[in-house]
Structures are given as structure tokens and as C-alpha cells.
Request: fold
Amino acid sequence: MRKLMLAVGGSLILVAPLSQADVVGLGASVSYWDSDLSGKAATNNDLVDVENDLNLGGDSTANASLYLEHPVPVLPNIRINYTRVKQSGRGQVGLVGFDGVTGDVQSDFDLEQLDLTLYYEVLDNWVNLDLGLTARDLAGDLTVQEVNGLATSETSVDAVIPMGYLAARFDLPFTGVSVGTEGNFISYGGDSLLDFNAYGQYEMAVLRFRAGYRQMSIDYEDGNDRLDVEIGGPFVSAGVSF
Reply:
């Protein structure tokens, strides 16, 4: 993981002088993500399917971002992004059970992550390309509780993870319309995280509207607990840029 960080960081230093913002730019956005959850969770060598066994479904998803771009050479631009996914459901784990829990269960899944991204503008015209590094503070909890009993199981992962960052956008001249994609990614030691979205965007004065699809894959082990899940679905967002 250290070698990956050094390699990516070195590449960013090489490309940093290629493009800089002419003036200070500030932007913010909020979005709604209609996401579905699938995959498995494991604790103490017990495994459960979060979709088929626990029937977890969409409850609420919050996403907000803030960025700052500047004309100072060498220094990277800054982007902060917050995502929270909450899912709940009622299912059954049978007599075999999961981590001491059996029968009918009530389950809650809570995923919270805060990203700090440092990035450079490699291209800045009708084709836009940003490259950077992200530090992601990831916290995920799955609680499974017997409906007619006292037994409860909790699967948790908690870590700060370095990830590569890439964003590309193609502007259609004189229309305010653009299409783009952005994502974070890393894979090391049997763990991997991938978080990307593709979108269409319309800008009008300082307002910016997006609609697209976001997909997140998490395969991460923390002690005796492991999450191997995918979260995906369409999103819409509204923002401002100055």
C-alpha cells in the first residue's frame, strides 16, 4: 500500500504543472442516491447474504460535496465528500443462524464515509481531467437481532484508506451540457474498494444539475469481521459553483 501511495503521488507531482485554475473556484452540491445493497457479511466465520437472508432495502442515502480550486502552482486542489447509506429489513437466517442469532431477524446496515481528496487539473478546456489521492474514513456496521429473542450480532469495519482519484468530463461547447465520470479505487492485500459514477450535467449560470448512476464495491476485512458488498443505483444532484 505504501508503494502504491508513493507511485501515485510521484505521478501527480509530474503532471501538476500542466494545468492550473485561472482564479479561485468554490463549489458545493447535495445529492439523492437511490441505492440497492447486495453481497455478504461475515463475522467469526459465519456468513450471511444481506439481500436474500436479511432482505435489506433502501431507507435513506445522503451525499454532499465541497471543492476548492486555486491558481497556486504545485499545491493541489481540495475536495471533501460525505456519504451515508442506511438500509434496514426483516428476514430469516434459519436454524443454522448467524453469529449466534437464529430464526426471524431485524437487521440494520449503516455505512458512513468521509473523503478528503487532493487533486490536480491535468486538462482544463472542453476536455477536463483531474488526478489525485483520496483519504477515505470508512465506517460500516451491520446489526442483526432476533425478533423473538435477545441475541444480537454486530459486524463492523472501521479504517482510514488511501485511494486513487480520477475525474473526467467532456463539455459540449455553447450548450451548458456535459458528460463525465469520476471514481476512487484501491486494491491491496486481498481487500479492494471501488467507488465510481457516470453522469450527465447541465450548467446554468452558477447552478449545476447532475443525473447519473453510482456504483460502490467494498471488500474489506477488519479483524474477524468482513464486508463484501455492492451498493448501486441512480442519483440526482444539485449544486452551485463560483
Notes: Residues 1-17 have pLDDT under 50 and may be disordered.
